[in-house]
Amino acid sequence: MMTCFFLSRDKLGFSSYCKIPFPLRIFHLMTESIINYLEEELIELLGSGFHVQRKEPVGGGCINHTYRLHTTKGVFFLKWNFSCADDLFVREAECLRELKRVAGGELIVPEVILAKEADELSGFILLENLESGSVAAQDTKLGKGLAHLHRYQPKDFGFENDNYCGATQQVNDWNESWLEFFAENRLGFMLRLIKNSRDISTDDLRVFEKLIDRLDLLLPNNSKASLIHGDLWSGNYLYTIKGPAIIDPASYYADREMELSIMQMFGGFSPKTWAAYQEAFPLEAGWEDRVQIYQLYHILNHYYLFGGCLVAVT
Description:
Layout: E1 3-5, H1 24-46, E2 52-57, E3 65-71, E4 74-81, H2 88-103, E5 112-116, E6 123-128, H3 138-150, E7 163-165, E8 168-170, H4 178-197, H5 202-213, H6 215-218, E9 226-228, E10 237-240, E11 243-246, E12 252-254, H7 257-266, H8 271-280, H9 287-306, E13 311-313
Antiparallel strand pairs: 1-13, 2-3, 3-4, 4-6, 5-6, 7-8, 9-12, 10-11
Helix pairs in contact: 3-8, 4-5, 4-9, 7-9
């Protein structure tokens, strides 16, 4: 058995990575450059006369710079960041489009208006603006919506491109075997990143490597691939006037228990959400033990990003 001691998410200091402060003048220049770019590019998509009338900073974002843009064509949501991977927002757009396709009307997923890879201009993503609000039975609808999402089960595990969980690359090469995918593309990949950038003792490393070797004894060999959000903690869903919405994904096709692992790891989901999920798509016996293994991926990712204490106990 392995136990890992780690910092809780609210103590990790998310502003410590990816979002690097700019001198105020440069920050404003970059924001205005993005808005000028949007006004030129969106004429074909949204029609002539598109113009940003005012920009409203949106609080709560600890990684990216976020604005609500009030325009002649409606209200949109803008995220930009010049300090992350060049293709981060393009990859996020792919996740959102796939989630929206599979979710149908069961969950609200913001429509992607435009996503741009970074060059001399910052990378950004422009989205449909979601208006916070309340409708009946939001907790229950969230659980049922996630069950609907996870019921879409193609053959293979992975995704069309690599993408990012936070600022960390996720390797998403397609694989017919969930055990191989999780061992190599998740735990193995994270351990290689940590070895190259963080202190990890030989003993701790050996414990993780032994665990990887024993995954076939701890996890089922008949897992089915489900589309998952990939980073579903309480900060990445919200309740809107249209119903529960999911945002900021790190999606791929995985055993659905991978999704539940991070939901349980940080909490923030109502018992009604869990009950609705179980009713709509019952979980196999032993899932509560297996999610502790899947949580290791997120624990390793947080250690890679933030450092702190990582102790493996056999």
